[in-house]
Amino acid sequence: MKTLYLLAIAIGSSVAAQTITFNGCHNLFDDQNFIFTKTGVDSNSKNIYITTPVDGQPCGGLGTCEFKIQWNNSLNRWEFLADEGNGTFTSPILMYYNATGNSVSPRPPSNTFGAWMENTAATGGQCGGSLTGANSTMTGDVHSSSLATSDVTKSRIQIFPNPVSDIIRISGIDNGHTIQIYNVDGRLIRTGAFDQKIDVSNLSAGVYVLKITTKKFESHEFKFVKK
């Protein structure tokens, strides 16, 4: 970037391509999409994303915008950074940060999960505070669930067997509405109507999270191991 840039958000892309599309903060950027592409993984196994092209995309009369999304391990948060030069990111400018999203996932949280807080010192407060689903879009290789597991010992709801090879059984719930299954990095891989028996025989071996939502919109999450 050759002048001060501010944030816009629209993150949308194919998960297979491992891209994020961002659109937002039109006060500072034109109404356009910025495409982030995964460029690598850091020492903490977190993905790194940089806008494509890394240098040359016009940005709301503010010059040329280059952005990066990466994990800051010392501050335990995801950061949305603007470049200070021509795509080198030697002294990037912090635009937004999210310290409430799932820190376990290698992918950053979406703009509807946790809080992407604006660094008003850099933006001049022109991006409306935190990023939300109302003022931006952020789609693609992001996640929107904490995948926190319930403490089974404190709940009357139980799943068994665990580990499981084919059928998970659910007991202690009579008002189930939907089920969702997430893999360990937060991707939703299955959703459907609630059933006390769930066939997981076609899942690959590994760790998953089963989320049960009731008709009263309560949610319960359980980690399980597929053998």
What do you see in this structure?
This is Secretion system C-terminal sorting domain-containing protein. The chain has 227 residues and is an all-beta fold. It folds into two domains: 19-140, no CATH class; 158-226, Sandwich (Immunoglobulin-like), CATH 2.60.40. 2% of the residues lie in helices and 38% in strands. It has one helix spanning 120-123, and strands at residues 19-24, 34-41, 47-51, 67-72, 77-82, 93-98, 116-118, 136-140, 158-160, 167-171, 176-183, 188-193, 197-199, 206-214, 219-226. Strands 7-6-5-4-3-2-1-8 form an eight-stranded antiparallel β-sheet. The model is unreliable at 1-16 and 148-154 (pLDDT under 50).
Tally of distinct domains: 2
| Biggest β-sheet description | 8 strands, antiparallel
Cα distance spanning the termini: 49 Å
> What fraction of residues sit in β-strands?
35-45%
Separate helix tally = 1
Quaternary class? single chain
Order of helices and strands: EEEEEEEHEEEEEEEE
Number of strands: 15
- The portion of residues assigned to helices is under 10%
Rg, rounded, reads 20 Å
- Shape, principal axes of CA atoms: elongated
List the topology elements:
Layout: E1 19-24, E2 34-41, E3 47-51, E4 67-72, E5 77-82, E6 93-98, E7 116-118, H1 120-123, E8 136-140, E9 158-160, E10 167-171, E11 176-183, E12 188-193, E13 197-199, E14 206-214, E15 219-226
Antiparallel strand pairs: 1-2, 1-8, 2-3, 3-4, 4-5, 5-6, 6-7, 9-10, 10-13, 11-12, 11-14, 14-15
